[in-house]
Amino acid sequence: MSRSSLWVSVIGIVVLLLGGCAKQSASPATPKPTAFGATLVESSGGKQIGATGTVLGQSVVVQVNDEQGNAVPGALVEFSGPVGVSFDPPAGLTDSSGQLSTNVALGVIAARYQITASTLTKAQQKVELKLEEMALGYQEQVGHQLDEKYCVRCHNPESTPERVSNYDNLETKPHAFTEGDTLNKMSDADLSAIIGHGGPALNKSALMPPYGYTLSKTEIQALLAYIRLISDPPYQGSGMLYVQK
Amino acid sequence: MEPDKNPKSSMWQIFFGDPVRAFGVVSLLLLISLAIAPAKNHFSEWRHYQQQYLTLIRGRGDAVTLQRHLQSGIQQIWLPDLGVVDRCTTCHVGLKEASLADVSSQPFRRHPVIPHKLDEFGCVTCHRGQGAATTVEEAHRSTLAWEQPILPARYVEASCGQCHRAALAGTPQLNLGRNLLGRYGCVHCHTVKLPDGGAMKATDDPPSLSHIVDKTTREWVYAWLKDPQAYAVSATMPNFKLSDPDARDISGFLIANSTALPGDTATLPASKAPPDPTAAASLYGESFCASCHAVQNAAGNVVGGDVGPELTRVGSKVKPEWLQSWLRNPRAYDAETAMPHYRLSDQQASLLSAYLENKTDSDLLANVHLDAATPEQIAHGKTLVTEYGCAACHEISGIKKPENFAPELTRIGSKPITQLVFLAGMPHTLPDYISAKIRQPRSFGAALKMPQFSFAPAQVDAVTTALLSLTDRGQNLPRSLTVPVPQVSDYQPAGKAGKLMADLACFSCHAINGRGGDMAPDLTWEGSSVQRPWLQAFLKNPNTLRPALIRRMPRFNLSDGDINELTDYIMTVYQAPAFDRDSMPASGYPAAQVEQGRQLFYAKYACQSCHIVNTKTDKGYVGPTLTQVGSRLNAAWIYNWLKNPQALRPGVIEPNFNMSDEDARALTAFLMTQRNSGKQEAKK
Q1: Superfamily of domain B497-684
Q2: Which of A53, A233, B82, B594 would be B154's cystine partner, CB 3.0–4.6 Å?
């Protein structure tokens, strides 16, 4: 009698425990789509620069359109990304204007992150949209700030309402820091020399002034780390090459 | 129990039947129990990781170096000053290996480059967790005995804030969070004491409500209380989620309680001719209102400065007679306002006022119909105003500013989780608790007073980060390790000029002697920098110095007397101690030296990349135009500036060229020949 009641309680506890586990691990169910689109376009939030492990400043907004290019409300969009990237929400239905917005937290490694939004067409075909975001570590972050303060006015051809670009005014055009095709071929030492001693140090234009008496070595290092990170195509590194499996 | 007895006794017989056998069995048991300790050590987690690391580095180009760096066994960083006993490096063996940049799997990832050495600060100072533990579970996650789990990477900047109290270039999230704590007025209600004795100060400057009856209507107050962001998306006032009757009563009380202020309303002309919209818009532009005030454009973006309030729907808020008076002299209504006293003519004031009154939103007050407030409603409104702590932020006549209105947050970053009440389904960690409190304070109880703020997700994380930086460790740090905030100066210029500068709100944009804004150049040494006639002309009619800037010096319509007063004061008081401004002549430089300067300007130093001397050939847009620099600046200032710009204006972006004295002299000679030639070709 007492033994059987013991068994009952043991089983009860086990069931409860399992139930508890199941409840914790259950993820919110993805909603059922009420409509299907044909294409997926970015509304905003691509190509942001954030910090490692943190939520990007702007939400990523994508829009589902049909064949005619009209917005499709009620279509299911799912977001995915490399390990460490999280989305809030990870999936959802598009709103009345055919858009879905998600907040993206990037991983802990300083790198470019490619995130993917996907939706299904009527024919159950998967349509994907790839967006790129950048996560900066401490050093790259410092470099980014320095870039914004000292470099961007000449090295970035784009103007913003707050900042008119000086790019068009220069006789010799500076390289954008994303220009991997050119900058990746230059060694760290060469780039440091140009930043520190100006263009003439490498027989380049004097329009690039020396910053070696204004910025510290650590700051130039940080700037370099930032330039290497944002370069497109990506910088492969000049270090040793390893035997990969 | 009966059926068990026989087999058990026979087992007993087998092992302990005779004394020799019993002795053997006991010895064996003893041996096994002795072996447990070394076995446990041998099979420990960290040994497994160290083995794994050896496998990982095998085959890499620098395997030998890496293996030499590896120290097997339990590693420990012991820092008594910081209370750090960290064994994390036992498993995280590759933290210092720069060549492991491609390894992304933990625990072997290298540490990102930071300005601190691992051996000087340990790991838990920044990452929290249990440093002394040597198993994954115990080190990273909270257990019953240990409360401190690892701080998630998304909040790790909080740890920098324990020692660094001022903004850091590498911690944008922490900087933003601290900024928001001040800007959204969190610290009006929540005290945050700093270890150096002071307290965190709010930066939002909420308006006094003692005289709002002059400024706005009860209907607007009602709509604003119900949803501040419906009036202005960038409003920092939180939403108190008031019921209609509560908003009705509070608005009734605030209007009834406020008194008219003599002289803050203007008598409007009887007949109003419709203003010329182009002239009004260009006056708004010329006065550079947008430097401080934002307006939401058709695309929904808020464009403009954030020193003053957003003006998108200002016409639905302010009374025309108040607005005109405010534009003529804002100090009549608010003596401390950041808004300059523009000295507009009556015609200009009415033009600008009409322009702003047109910025309305018909939806805002469409559904607000309030009957006259009854005495009971007003009394209830007063109770609500006291209960919600409105006076913690706003000055309200007859209501005292409440002390310690909300829980103190001085050590919130170290609050034990046993003292927190979590919501169902919420992860039991401090960061999750804090961020949920910021996101939806009322979800912790409908009766709570904390209002709903309008933070975006990244802002919530930033505020959480700033709060997590307020730790016990931060409070108890040795003084030598803290990096304090630079002292805020309360500099006040003296005399009549000082009064004028306060009236013109110069400090809203310019900094002088450590006090003031950063929108415009620092004027601490302006007297050494510029020539007197230029300064006089500039104050009378500011022309464009930096074509690429959208925020420029407005025209204040100053009288000649005021201009002389200001010029005298600036030229006499704001002088650089490092050199005599009259030590170099303004003219008379030999032609050869001037020519040498020209060569240096265009060839060696390529100054034209940022500056314009000849408007026909030069296009540089970054620095100020130098076409008339010889009439604007003193020669000694130019020379010293060329030698070291940062020494004269810290943080200025013009690089230090480490120029020789000879080059600097030649360039000065060349620049001093760039003079006002009568026609103003620089104006753009």
Answers
A1: Cytochrome c-like domain (1.10.760.10)
A2: A53
Q: Which candidate, B662, B567, B675, B684, places its Cα nearest to that of B630? A: B675
Q: Does A220 touch chain B (CB under 8 A)?
A: no
**Which of the residues A23, A61, A88, A108 would you substitute to probe the B interface, choosing the one with the greatest number of B C-beta atoms within 10 Å?**
A108
CB-based contact B645:B651 (threshold 8 Å) = no
pLDDT tens for each residue of B385-396: 999 999 999 999
A201 has a chain B CB within 8 A of its CB: no
What is the pTM for the complete model shown? 0.86
Tell me the nearest-neighbour CA distance from B41 into chain A, angstroms.
Answer: 31
Note whether A209 contacts B621, CB cutoff 8 Å.
no
- For B485-559, strand residue ranges (E) read 511-512, 515-516
Whole-Å CA distances, B568 to B533, B571, B575, B580 = 11, 5, 12, 17
Among chain A residues, the shortest Cα distance to B160 is held by A138
Which tens digit of pLDDT belongs to each residue from B535-582?
999 999 887 677 667 778 888 999 999 999 999 999 999 999 999 988
**pLDDT tens digits for B14-35?**
887 788 888 988 999 999 999 9
Of A161, A210, A218, the CB nearest to B655: A210
**What is the C-alpha to C-alpha distance for residues B498 and B565, in angstroms, rounded to an integer?**
10
- Say if the Cβ atoms of A141 and B170 lie within 8 Å: yes
Report d(CA A12, CA A15) in Å as an integer.
5
SS3 content of chain B, % helix, strand, coil (to 5): 45, 5, 50
Note the CATH number of domain A39-136: 2.60.40.10
Structure tokens at B168: 């850091």
CA distance B575 to B570: 8
**A170 touches B at CB < 8 Å:** yes
Pick the CATH number of B212-364+373-383 from 3.40.50.20, 1.10.10.60, 1.10.760.10, 3.30.360.10: 1.10.760.10
pLDDT of residue B43: 84
Please tell me the distance from the alpha carbon of residue B577 to that of residue B575, in angstroms, as a whole number. 6
Report the percent of chain A where pLDDT is more than 90: 41
Q: How many CB pairs under 8 A join A and B?
A: 127
Is B55 an interface residue toward A (CB < 8 Å)?
no
Write b or e for each residue in B129-143: b if 16 or more Cβ atoms lie within 10 A of its Cβ, otherwise e.
bbbbbbeeebbeebe
pLDDT of residue B1: 45
B228-241 per-position pLDDT tens digit:
999 999 999 999 99
Assess A43–B contact: CB distance below 8 Å, yes or no: no
Q: To the nearest whole angstrom, how far is the Cα of B623 from the nearest Cα of chain A?
A: 10
Answer left, alpha or beta for residue B588, where phi above 0 means left and psi between -120 and 50 means alpha.
Answer: left
- In sign, the C-alpha dihedral spanning B424, B427, B430, B436 is negative
CATH topology (fold) of A138-230: Cytochrome Bc1 Complex; Chain D, domain 2 (1.10.760)
Please give the CATH architecture assigned to the domain spanning B161-203+406-481. Orthogonal Bundle (1.10)
* Residue B152 sits at the chain A interface (C-beta within 8 Å): yes
Q: Which residue spans of chain B are classified as CATH 1.10.760.10?
A: 161-203+406-481, 212-364+373-383, 497-684
Look up residue A147 and give its DSSP letter.
Answer: I
- Which residues of chain A neighbour B65 with C-beta distances below 8 Å? none
Q: Which ranges in chain A are annotated with CATH 2.60.40.10?
A: 39-136
Q: Do A237 and B101 count as a contact with CB atoms less than 8 A apart?
A: yes
How far is the C-alpha of B105 from the C-alpha of B495, rounded, in Å?
66
